[in-house]
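Data availability (excerpt). The following record was deposited with the supplementary files.
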Amino acid sequence: MPLPPSLAPLVMLSVLLAATPSTSPPAAGPSSPTLAVEDTMHTAVPEVLIRAPRVTLNEILDRVARGEARRDSLMRDQTFLFSVRVLSTSLNGSKPPDLLAETVTRVYKKRPDKVRSLTLREWQKKPDKKKDDDQPVDVNFRSDMSEEIVNFAFRPENRRDFNYRIVARDLVGNHLIYRIAFQPRSSVDPLTPSGLVWVDTNDFVIVRQEVNFERSPVPLLLKGIRRMVIERVQSGPFWVLGRVLIRIELTVPLPQIGRAFDVAMRFDQYAINTGLADSLFVAAKK
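Predicted structure:
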């Protein structure tokens, strides 16, 4: 006969208590089942004093420069899909983001100086009236693969323009990550930002960067760039651009946009060192 639901837990508890070993001698008769009790095993590893000198900041910066140069040199050609979205947003989060425009482009690059981009799709929430002679807007890309947007402050030729300091060292899985802050030595140029980078010491490449502008680079139009985040992802053995997120605040609200908007760029569907033919970069005859 099934037990009522309210009594079932009490009955199970009673069974467990009855099966607990007693300290008194067992009564004569057939043996009853007992529950085994295991003690938790504790281990301790003694501390080890490391006497080797810690790697200096200058050595780390040199290794980052070499790691970035090596990353660049290993890629002979690459193909990827580039998507950019523009969204209006509210600074206080009172309204959800509203997609205003989106462009999707296929990009081809090949050493030493070949680059081609094809616009696959363009969309606008409220498009302007199209004229007969309007042409799709192509996004221009550089032919090199150095991704200067990520490592501009850590290139050897720019090191004299910034101050650096180690913020933290983090162990993530089997990766030791250095967080290094950089700041311009001079505040004259508003286009020179400060920021924070994450350096993966397995390859000594920058895998993430947060950029801050102390002043607006275009004060008449932009009140400021609230946030800029750049992230890399791994495509096989290569670290490549993954996404760029920018939040911009305007000095004057604009129609359809408002006072602030986000730009979200995504790079994916990478194919690297596939042997792109030179004919791919020859413009079609009209």
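Summary of structural features: The beta strands are 77-88, 98-110, 114-124, 162-172, 175-184, 194-200, 205-212, 222-235, 238-254, 258-272.
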